[in-house]
Amino acid sequence: MQIDFTRLKPRDYYLNKLISFKDTEPVKVITGIRRCGKSSVMKLMIRHLLESGIDESQILYMNFESMEYSDMTAKQLYQYVQKRRPQDKRYYLFFDEVQRIIDWQDAINSFRVDFLCDIYVTGSNAYLLSSELATYLSGRYVEIKMLPLSFSEFISFHGYAVTEHTGLTGKPSKQISDSSGNVFTAEEMFESYLKFGGMPGIADIGLDWDNTLTILDGIYSTVVTRDILEREKRRGQRQITDAELLRRIVRFLADNIGNNVSMTTIANTLFNEGLVENSRTAKPAVQTVQAYVGALMKSFVFYETKRYDIKGRDYLRTLGKYYIVDIGLRNYLLGLRDSDTGHIIENVVYFELLRRGYDIAIGKIGDTEVDFIATTADEKTYYQVTLTMQDESTRERELRPLKQIRDNYEKIVLTLDRNLITSYDGIKVVNLIDWLM
Q1: How many angstroms separate the CA atoms of 225 and 99, rounded?
Q2: Can you state the percent helix, strand and coil of the chain, rounding each to 5?
Q3: DSSP assignment string, 29-77
Q4: Three-state SS for 141?
Q5: Separation between Cα atoms, residue 409 and residue 375, nearest integer Å
Q6: DSSP string, 307-372
Q7: Rounded CA gap, 385 and 49, in Å?
Q8: What is 206-248 written as a DSSP string?
Q9: What CA–CA distance (Å, rounded) separates 241 from 228?
Q10: How far is CA 298 from CA 79, 109, 176, 301, 432, in A?
Q11: N or C: which end of the chain has fewer CB within 10 A?
Q12: Cα separation of 230 and 326, whole Å?
């Protein structure tokens, strides 16, 4: 087994999830957009097994993007594993980009039935995995959904350390320093995060924008050509054939993160630009848009959040919101902008809540909205996200929806302000950067 562990960086949240399912029957499936770190967390798990005393002969790692396995069939995969499995010991099987094997699920199901084994697989495209896992694996799987780096991970991946000290006022504050002892504010580091985004590979080249654009271009091109266009062609589904139209839809969604968006709105915009053929009823254009947007979500480029009527206690079918998986990818698509920071930080908060294990909805109450309702089985929190609370009219606008909610769950406003006032009528005001760290 040839694996270089020396360059691995910690992704403890995902590694601990895998550890918690170790030696259980379900297949552990790690999904996420390309280059978000799935292979690395798989290797972290292998290192954990070795450090826990598992013999190397009990571990098999195969990366199906290697030419070594390019023509392998599901039956050949089964035979390959069968020849190498240890007798009377548990076999730990790690398959990277397993969807490249046709009928891969037949081999995986056979391993689970025939061998004493613990199975881990990765896949970049939910077209091939998430939407079909229940059928492929008969429900016997757990899905670990990976995202690009959080802000805290971004700091550590790029070689910075966070220290806490007490200021002149007696309040604790955080400083960020590099290996040479240079000190940076949390705000400076956050600005870098909003510019470069959280794709792990960027840490290998440093915070250089031209090099970052090259990496992001490669990620985007691979997702579009391999995960969407080529797959549609290979499976004989011709709904998605136009790379330029797909890029226009991507740019539209990226430009409208945090806005209420309907398929009709997108279709009308594209029609006005002459990019889609439209009928009298506009139905074909809407159906086309739905197919393209669905493909983008299944490839983990965009995530959709539904609206929830807080008073009516029911989800609404119209006007959801879309968030892009990585802000750096958005900057690659649209260029660097000084405006729209409000929606950008809302995007950051959305994915941070996902990382923390929440189900998320947009809250509608009367004629106002709460940015996020974050829930788990036993917890609920309402969040508003705003650049500043300094202006009185802005403060009233952000607090008004939260004040209308009559239950006793926690209500929080996240802002870039560092105010002395930390609560308004029981509604907490928290600095966004501190919350992320």
Answers
A1: 16
A2: 45, 25, 35
A3: EEE-STTSSHHHHHHHHHHHHHHTT--GGGEEEEETTSGGGTT--HHHH
A4: strand
A5: 10
A6: EEETTTTEEEEEEEEEEES-HHHHHHHH---SS-HHHHHHHHHHHHHHHTT-EEEEEEETTEEEEE
A7: 41
A8: -S-HHHHHHHHHHHHHHIIIIIIIIHHHHTT--S---HHHHHH
A9: 9
A10: 31, 23, 36, 8, 29
A11: N
A12: 23
User: In degrees rounded to 5, what are phi and psi of residue 254?
Assistant: -65, -35
Residues 242-291 have pLDDT tens digits of 888 888 899 999 999 999 888 888 888 888 877 665 544 444 578 888 88
- Token output for 34: 């390309």
Alpha-carbon distance of 110 to 238, in angstroms, equals 33
Whether 331 and 63 have beta carbons less than 8 Å apart is answered as: no
The b-or-e profile of 46-55 (16+ CB within 10 A means b, else e) is beebbeeebe
Report the C-alpha gap between 373 and 95 in whole angstroms: 36
d(CA 355, CA 372): 14
**What token pair was written down for 427?**
């509604």
pLDDT tens digits for range 59-118: 999 999 899 998 999 999 999 999 999 988 999 999 998 888 888 999 999 999 999 999
Query: Helices 341-355 & 327-334, crossing angle to 10 degrees?
Result: 150
Residues 302 and 292: their CA atoms lie apart, in Å, by 11
| pLDDT at residue 301, rounded to an integer | 94
What angle is formed at CA 300 by the lines to CA 190 and CA 9, rounded to 5 degrees?
Answer: 50
Q: Are 413 and 401 in contact (CB under 8 A)?
A: no
Whether 323 and 351 have beta carbons less than 8 Å apart is answered as yes
Estimate to the nearest angstrom the gap between the alpha carbon of 203 and the chain centroid: 18
Tokens representing 138 are 């008969």
Query: Can you give the pLDDT at residue 148?
Result: 97
C-alpha distances in angstroms, 202 versus 26, 158, 191, 329, 345? Answer: 33, 9, 15, 12, 20
* Integer Cα distance of 201 and 388 in angstroms: 32
- From CA 163, how far away is CA 175, in angstroms rounded? 5
The Cα 284–Cα 317 span in angstroms is: 20
Structure tokens at 221: 């091109």
